[in-house]
Amino acid sequence: MDEVVKAIQDEYPDDFAWCYGCGRLNEGGHHFRTGWQGEQTITIYNPSPEHLALPGFVYGGLIASLIDCHGTGSAAISLHRKNGHEVGEGAEPPRFVTASLNVEFLKPTPHGVPLKAIGNVEEIHPKKWKVTTEVYANDTLCARGEVVAVVMPSTFANK
Amino acid sequence: MDEVVKAIQDEYPDDFAWCYGCGRLNEGGHHFRTGWQGEQTITIYNPSPEHLALPGFVYGGLIASLIDCHGTGSAAISLHRKNGHEVGEGAEPPRFVTASLNVEFLKPTPHGVPLKAIGNVEEIHPKKWKVTTEVYANDTLCARGEVVAVVMPSTFANK
After folding, report:
1. What is the pLDDT averaged over residues B116-125?
2. CA dist list (Å): A145 to A63, A142, B23, B27
């Protein structure tokens, strides 16, 4: 199976590593990890046995969660690169929050195969990025999503 | 705390009660339950300790999941009523799948209080319903969502 070797989430400071979707310190979470694949971004995830809509199909809320965290991670890794950094250098990456999330469910998503979220990132404004994502199960496009992510306001970090 | 007494998910046939979001038979799932509140629909949920974005705030993917299942449940309970049935009668309700899900995150959602999803349901077509949802933490509107739900195609049930 393909693997994301260098993921932006690996370098978030500990204080920001508790996200249920993509925080490496959240034991019960999904541990989504987002890296580069050429000029696109990629997150790979194996749904757990309980992540069902119906037996045999993946839960839509999990797909939405994947698109959400893949979106903020893709925005973060892109701004990190724009700032002159690559994952693995040890520089602290920017952190984003989701302003809006749109998901179109195109086909029932089969359970039991890895899901790949492939993202294209566009800068709308230095603090506002749009990530368009396609979710594949094997080679079948099952869902399409769009996330508008904004640089995390300081009000979050102060809590 | 408020409670949904009669929920549409309580009456889904066993084969359709495995959804990670709203299936009563999915042990590890969220067990979202959707009922009437006047002419609106309501789903109440207490996020678990691990459902964090950052410490103190609820994970956006969970909010998206809540809006998703609240949407399909609201469509189902509405079509059930249109078909002349109320929850609790024992008639088998219709089942919906999500065609599209849109979420706007308006404010950071505080963790530690029950979330209430309140829905308004509109019939677009006998097999296609739109549910507009507001998610409140205490009295604060934190997110707004829209689900287009369609009557479950028979291809799902055959698997």
Report:
1. 97
2. 9, 10, 25, 28
Whether B44 maps to a domain, the answer reads yes
Q: Say whether residue A15 is in contact with chain B using an 8 A CB cutoff.
A: yes
- Smallest Cβ–Cβ distance between A53 and the set B19, B52, B59 belongs to B19
| A93, part of any domain | yes
What gap in Å lies between CA A19 and CA A1, rounded to an integer?
25
Confidence of residue B153 (pLDDT cuts 50, 70, 90): confident
Q: Which two tokens stand for residue A104?
A: 């179109």
d(CA B19, CA B146): 20
Q: Does B99 touch chain A (CB under 8 A)?
A: yes
Locus of tokens 């296609």: B128
Give the pLDDT confidence of A141-150 residue by residue, as tens digits.
999 999 999 9
**Average of per-residue pLDDT across A15-25:** 96
CATH number (domain holding residue A145): 3.10.129.10
Residue B3: inside a domain, yes or no?
Answer: no
**pLDDT band, residue B157 (cuts 50/70/90):** low
A15, B54: Cβ pair inside 8 Å?
yes
Please tell me whether residue A153 adopts helix, strand or coil conformation.
coil
Indicate whether A119 belongs to any domain: yes
Total of domains in chain A: 1
d(CA B132, CA A113): 32
Chain B residues touching A69 at Cβ < 8 A? 61
Domain that holds residue A105: 8-156
pTM to 2 decimal places: 0.96
